[in-house]
Amino acid sequence: MNSNGKENGNDGADENSDKGLSDVTSDGATSSGSTATTSSGKEENPEEDYIRNHLKTYTWYHGLMFGNICDKLLKWDHSFLVRRVITKTDKFLCLSVRIASKVYHFRLRTNQHGWTCPKLQEKFPRLPKQRYEHIFEIINSWSQIFPSIIAVPRRSMVLQHDWIQLDQILGKGAFGEVFKARFTASGATASIEVAAKRALGDAKRSKIQEFCHEASIQAVLQHENVVAFYGIASLEEPIIVLMELVTGGDLEKLLKSNLKISKVQIIYFAMNIACGMRYIASKNVIHRDLAARNCLITKDLKAKISDFGLSRLGPQVIEKSIKKAPIRWMSPESLLTGTFNEKTDVWSYGVLLTEMMTRCAHKPLWPMGIKDAQEHIKTSDAPHRIQNGEPWELLAIVDACCDRNPETRFNFQTVKRQMRTIYTNCLAAGNQQQETNQTPIGPTSGVIPLEMKKSNDRQKTMNTTLGRKKSKDGGMIKSSKSKKSKKSKRKFFSFRRKNKNGIQLPTGMSTVPVGSPKATPTSQAPSLPTPPLNTPPLPPPQTSVTSVPSPSQNSAPPISGPPTSTQSKSPTTTQ
């Protein structure tokens, strides 16, 4: 966003798409966004009541929507939808239609006599010039003279306000409030806890656009290391965005308040963030504000990436002026040319690692001021290299992520692979056992050590290979790796049959078990060797797992190393 409060890139098309919608006709109709004063002195908007009581029941009504999104939804000729428009001075309903590969926006107007659409009547002269009680009657009349129109249903991410029950307030910002809420999806019998971000009613158009833009970015992301997005309630006011409720706080506060957090846990958080950023980059999303303050921690100690207010869709954007830009986390090419892409997010990830290594004791490049820090990033070969960081295993990753040359700088696929290797090596080396004197930070069932998975697979393979197999007739034979001779294949019969007289044994065989004092051969033919029946299978290999004490429910969440349990938890679905 630039200093004027307008967003660059694709979102700027909205100004042109909605241009001319604020016109005033001479038929005496009031704007649908106008207000009236009741006898009690309270101002009410007739449009709001109509939306709440009638319009929101129709799937072709999409609620608040900006022009650039509308143009993408109207893919076919003669397709249409009804949406809510916000300009700098007004709010109103409009009918958007694609005709001959061009999108038209016709403003809907109302007064005490009903609804009308003057511009649509001009475009289609055969449409009766009259007022209608409901908007759907205008569309029905239009379809009779233009029968090929196609209604575009609203997206699944658009929610009804009736499905949301706000609870306690968690925070408040410049143009919104965050609540703890309950959400019951359509057709669901049980509700879930969520975080609800509600826009203030008097927020300006630019702020509302930022609000909706962040929701549209989150709508394309679904990953266990990204805060989940449930939808946006935009059919009526106020606009509410629903997200996963993450109760563990942000990573910055966690590191500051738990200085003895284990090294393996730090590396596990870094691996979580690398996995999340690799997924975000694969969706052509540029985060542009990756920092410890924007990473949230769940109850089972998993890091999730949040705050997509500055994010952009696309492989690369160029934006030289950004309001509230995170200078200390930005790459040299972003500061010099305004370029943002996956490699600039990788640079920010390297700065995030330095925050973790110093436990967020201070901001990056402290004690430099913002101007000195900006100049240092532009000119220094290794501006974020630190000497006494812990874990030391991350030092090489920081240098690779903060490489001044974007061509040789790591991408997130490489970062993810390197972080997995570091995490696996730390577990294999017993670093978690060496740090048992440090304060644990909570339940450890959420982390799956990679080496344990290999051990379990190896154990399963050994049990399968060295175990006892069952013969076709029900007996037990011992598996062997030695090659059997093709000339002489011996068959072994089971002596565990209930009806011993029901079969005819070969000459020289007896129904009495071998080794019994009563076992006598029935003929002079040599007896065949009998395999051992009670040979036990080899025991599986032993794997030692360090147990971590679980915290009490009444105490503050303790800090511990990541779990070594082989059972994985499903990602949290509530925030």
Shape: elongated
**Structural class by SSE content:** alpha+beta
Strand percentage lies at: 15-25%
**Rg to the nearest angstrom?**
34 Å
Helicity level, as a percent range? 25-40%
Distance between the termini: 28 Å
Tally of DSSP helical segments: 15
Query: What is the number of strand segments?
Result: 22
> On the 0-100 scale, what is the average pLDDT?
77
Main beta sheet: strand number and arrangement?
5 strands, mixed
Q: Uncertain runs with pLDDT below 50, 5 residues or more?
A: 1-16, 22-42, 440-455, 457-488, 514-561, 563-575
Region (Disordered): 1-47, 434-575
Keywords: ATP-binding, Kinase, Nucleotide-binding, SH2 domain, Transferase, Tyrosine-protein kinase
Family: Belongs to the protein kinase superfamily. Tyr protein kinase family.
EC number: 2.7.10.2
Describe the structure.
Residues 164-422 form the Protein kinase domain. It comes from Caenorhabditis briggsae. This protein has 575 residues and is α+β, with helices and mostly antiparallel strands. It is 27% helix and 17% strand. The chain is built from 15 helices and 22 strands. It has helices at residues 13-17, 46-53, 67-73, 118-123, 135-145, 205-218, 251-257, 263-282, 332-337, 342-357, 370-379, 395-401, 412-428, 431-434, 450-466; strands at residues 36-37, 43-44, 61-64, 79-86, 91-99, 102-107, 109-111, 114-116, 150-151, 164-172, 176-183, 192-199, 229-233, 240-244, 285-286, 295-297, 303-305, 312-313, 316-318, 339-341, 468-470, 476-478. Strands 3, 4, 5, 6 and 9 form a 5-stranded mixed beta sheet that branches. A 5-stranded antiparallel beta sheet has the order 10-11-12-14-13, with helices on one face. A two-stranded antiparallel sheet has the order 1-2. The chain is elongated, with a radius of gyration of 34 Å. It starts with 12 loop residues before the first helix and ends in a 97-residue tail after the last strand. Mean pLDDT is 77; it is low at 1-16, 22-42, 440-455, 457-488, 514-561 and 563-575.
